[in-house]
């Protein structure tokens, strides 16, 4: 029997991926987490039944989310990534030599552990000396931080489960408050 992942985007549009193998599947404190092997895209990180990243095409998303704000900012030294537990955005940010520190705030430690173990080409930069991994809710982190950033990247999952509040006005006001005067979100 074939196994397929199906994501219904609208009434008239859905995406289908053939799953060759389920590598890991577990319920964490925050969400359902799985790593699967897809027929055409290699391994994929799945959170709450939604594909977050695949080995086959992750570079498209991660390069755009990281490089565009970093080459736009005149001197991006301090970067904050909210979410991004797969590690792809972090990997791309760290390609910029002028970046001196990256705080990556991820609510679910299990996402990073799974990425490091099962998606090593994506989750390869967590141990970089410029990376500071913080396991806390990004909403709470931004409410309480006094640190200022040159660039903030929101690399969240879909607006379900723990990510719902990342799509609210108060969250973005707190992002603005954590930016330096010339900061980019």
In short:
This protein has five helices and ten strands, in the order βββββαβαβαβαβαβ. With 185 residues, it is of the alpha/beta class.
How does the SSE layout of this entry go?
Layout: E1 3-10, E2 13-27, E3 32-38, E4 42-47, E5 50-54, H1 58-72, E6 78-83, H2 88-93, E7 101-106, H3 109-118, E8 131-135, H4 138-144, E9 149-155, H5 169-177, E10 179-184
Parallel strand pairs: 6-7, 6-9, 7-8, 9-10
Antiparallel strand pairs: 1-2, 2-3, 3-4, 4-5
Main β-sheet description: 5 strands, antiparallel
The shape is: globular
Percent helix = 25-40%
C-alpha termini separation:
45 Å
Radius of gyration: 17 Å
- Helix/strand-derived class? alpha/beta
* Count of discrete alpha- or pi-helical segments spanning 4 or more residues: 5
- Proportion of beta-strand residues: 35-45%
Question: Average pLDDT across residues?
Answer: 95
Query: How many E-type strands?
Result: 10
Order of helices and strands: EEEEEHEHEHEHEHE
Give me the side-by-side strand order of the main sheet.
1-2-3-4-5
Poorly predicted runs: none
């Amino acid at each position: 029997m074939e196994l397929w992942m199906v994501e219904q985007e609208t009434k008239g549009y859905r995406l289908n991926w053939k799953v060759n193998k389920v590598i890991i599947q577990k319920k964490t404190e925050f969400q359902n987490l799985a790593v699967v092997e897809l027929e055409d895209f290699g391994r994929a990180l799945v959170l709450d039944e939604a594909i977050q990243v695949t080995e086959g095409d992750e570079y498209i998303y991660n390069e755009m989310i990281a490089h565009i704000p970093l080459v736009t900012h005149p001197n991006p030294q301090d970067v904050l990534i909210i979410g991004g537990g797969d590690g792809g955005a972090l990997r791309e940010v760290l390609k910029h030599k002028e970046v001196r520190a990256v705080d990556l705030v991820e609510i679910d430690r299990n996402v990073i552990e799974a990425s490091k173990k099962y998606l090593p080409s994506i989750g390869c930069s967590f141990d970089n000396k410029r990376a500071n991994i913080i396991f806390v809710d990004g909403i709470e982190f931004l409410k309480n931080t006094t640190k200022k950033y040159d660039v903030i990247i929101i690399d969240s999952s879909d607006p379900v489960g723990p990510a719902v509040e990342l799509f609210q006005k108060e969250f973005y006001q707190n992002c603005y408050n954590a930016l330096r005067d010339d900061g980019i979100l």
